[in-house]
Amino acid sequence: MSARPVKHSLSLRGHRTSVSLEEEFWDEFRAIARFEGKAINALAAEIDEARGPDVGLASAIRVYVLTCVKARAGD
Description:
Elements: E1 5-12, E2 15-22, H1 23-35, H2 40-50, H3 57-73
Antiparallel strand pairs: 1-2
Helix pairs in contact: 1-3
């Protein structure tokens, strides 16, 4: 388990940005994108559009991943 966030670049509607997530979140985020048949940048753009103005993109992605994992677990 990695405790340190890892920074990756994403492209959101033609705009480059960097997001830092723990490797476990990156792994699950990629798996969710594959399962949904979406590119990781497209899924990140959807999350970006849906998040509130006071919510950072990394936090929004973590919550999205957690919500997906809990849904699969039946919570």
